Amino acid sequence: MSNGKKENLVIVGGGPSGLSAAIYAARAALGPLVIEGVPPGGQLMLTTEVENYPGFHKGILGPELISIFRQQAERFGTRFLTDKVLSVKPEGEYIHVQTANAQISARTVLVATGADAMWLGLASEQRLRGKGVSACATCDGFFFRDKVVGVVGGGDTAMEEANFLTKFVKKAYIIHRRDEFRASKIMQERALANPKVEAVYNAVVEEVLGEDKVTGVKLKIQNSKSKIQNLELDGLFIAIGHRPATEFLDGSGVELDRKGYVVTSERFAWDYAKSQIQNPNFKYNLDFKYMTSVEGIFAAGDCVDHVYRQAGTAVGMGIAAELEIEKWLEEKK
């Protein structure tokens, strides 16, 4: 099925990055179409209180913030399609976007699909998300001042989260399923030298305890005499990684890194400057920082950014990418 219309810009993703780009694109008379995904809204739709987004001094609920973004984009003429993108294929002057229910052709595409935190897969964990269970210390650490928390993970992210949390908490346990961390040596040393941090090795979280809020975790201690042990906590941070939502780019020609994050010109140039090794399989237009290895396909937000992963940085990237799209379309004319 095709709508027959050639779009100037299709934005894949209805989170902060995609919606911010849509606001700018609509005001620039590009008539953007946002394919917002199923369900729409991104990670903020799963976030309760957002207190660190500028402009809302009393805080705001994540879904409410997304709703405001969406209404603002709609006000300037952005159109929305609630559908799932299956593939993106460049062909000649156009990029064909195949969704579950339509095929759409566009001059430019902005990939702003974000990344999903990886979870433990426990029913109790999902039930208590936003009630003491979090996947973002930067977002939620402030709420645990003088509390005791756990951080699940063994990589650099877990070490960073634990260290950050010690700015607020009384105690942070790093809970890891193996007998040693896989984090870099310097990150391990930094975390374990912190008097507020304590490691719990060979421990698997079996259940998150609590009814309306987290009160602790049930741990299975894995050693020669495996046993169940309860650990009292006020909060639990899951730090086992993120998974970018980029599977639909398979076969598009867009370069992804080994974890699935989109490589833009800016990141390519940065990696090249550090390593002095150019990837011979991909070519980049370095005049456009947010363009991917495919002309006309841009990317922004958490599907690119594996470092900061904040709504504010996603918004900035989305706006910058849209301004580049305007420039690129003007040059093509």
Secondary structure blueprint with pairings:
Blueprint: E1 2-12, H1 16-27, E2 33-35, E3 49-50, E4 60-61, H2 62-75, E5 79-81, E6 85-91, E7 94-99, E8 103-111, E9 115-117, H3 123-127, E10 133-134, H4 137-140, E11 148-152, H5 156-165, E12 171-175, H6 185-192, E13 197-200, E14 203-209, E15 216-221, E16 227-232, E17 235-238, E18 242-244, H7 265-275, E19 297-299, H8 311-332
Helix pairs in contact: 1-2, 1-8, 5-6
Beta strand count: 19
Outline type: elongated
**Distance between the first and last residues' Cα:** 28 Å
Q: Helical proportion?
A: 25-40%
What does the largest sheet look like? Answer: 7 strands, mixed
Which parts are unreliable, with pLDDT below 50 for 5 consecutive residues or more?
none
Strand content: 25-35%
Query: SSE order in H/E notation?
Result: EHEEEHEEEEEHEHEHEHEEEEEEHEH
- Supply the number of helical segments: 8
Mean pLDDT: 91
Radius of gyration in whole Å, from Cα?
22 Å
| Class inferred from helices and paired strands | alpha/beta
